[in-house]
Specification:
mainly beta, 3-stranded antiparallel sheet, disordered N terminus, Outer membrane phospholipase (ompla), Chain C, 13-stranded antiparallel sheet, single chain, 286 residues
């Protein structure tokens, strides 16, 4: 996801729709098996930057029902809001995935006051995963997503360019034989000119004495480190906590008056409750 935490897989909107399910049943061989589908309720909040390199954080909260489905080709609520899987073997996975994220109100941000708000964003595109094997009991991957980005205020939809977000991820379940799991990643984002303009361009009509007009360039957006922990309170109830640190030094638009600081950080908390589960069980690929 994009290197703005309110535009990240870790933010509450994408987080709530992208969590793993709660069931931890095992088959006779000890392999975890889970329901084919679950109807869940999730909720939580995030305190995150308004956009990459912003100097203001905002609080977002959300609670909503959602569905998890673990099909062979269509999967909901695992790694992303939704994804269609075309290749999945011991070494690689190729899928088309969808992500979504929060908006930001410019009237509450000194750097953007008087400028248009930043709308909700959603992304769609192919992602190649290269499975690198196990490390200290966890699974490592190189993830190479390329996605088209769109903004919406739910009345119109605008195309905002494309992003490339290569990253290494590390996931480990049952840490110290407990109900705690960890999900971490480190990576960088590169986006086309159009998305950089959405964050950093200052058109002449929005220039002020302290905010000069600025034309944005495409290229490097920033890098981030993410760490999330989850705890299985019961077979159906799970709690989450985590955050990320983003670094934007050397970004393509470091000279923009909207580029306010080189480092951002954020935190989130949340929960998921699996209300209904199918009787059919599967052993999904992790």
């Amino acid at each position: 996801m994009i290197a703005r935490n309110s535009l990240s897989a870790i933010v509450v909107f994408a987080f709530l729709l992208g969590v793993e399910a709660q069931a931890q049943d095992t088959n006779p061989d000890g392999v975890p098996i889970k329901p084919l589908w679950e109807l869940c309720v999730g909720g939580g909040g995030a305190y995150s930057p308004d956009y990459p390199a912003a100097d203001k954080n905002s609080l977002h909260g959300l609670a909503l029902p959602y569905v998890i489905y673990r099909g062979d080709r269509l999967r909901l609520g695992s790694d992303s809001i939704a994804k269609g899987v075309f290749i999945d073997n011991d070494y690689t996975e190729l899928n088309v995935s969808l992500e979504a994220s929060f908006n930001a109100n410019s009237s509450d941000n000194n750097a953007r006051r008087g400028m248009p708000d930043l709308d909700y964003l959603f992304e769609i595109g192919p992602q190649l995963k290269i499975k690198l094997g196990e490390l200290y009991g966890g699974k490592t991957e190189l993830q190479l997503p390329v996605r088209a980005v769109f903004s919406t205020d739910f009345s119109t939809v605008d195309h905002r360019g494309y992003l490339f977000n290569p990253k290494f991820s590390y996931k480990r379940q049952y840490i110290f034989n407990s109900a705690i799991s960890m999900d971490s990643s480190i990576g960088s984002s590169f986006t086309t000119k159009k998305l950089h303009e959405y964050f950093y361009r200052v058109e002449p009509q929005f220039a002020t004495a302290t905010r000069t007009a600025y034309e944005a360039d495409g290229g490097y957006l920033g890098s981030k480190i993410t760490l999330g922990l989850s705890y299985g309170i019961s077979n159906r109830l799970r709690a989450y906590v985590g955050g990320h640190v983003g670094y934007y030094g050397g970004a393509a638009n470091e000279d923009s008056p909207l580029f306010r600081q080189k480092m951002n950080s954020s935190v989130y908390v949340g929960f998921t409750w699996s209300i209904f589960q199918s009787d059919t069980r599967v052993s999904p690929a992790e």
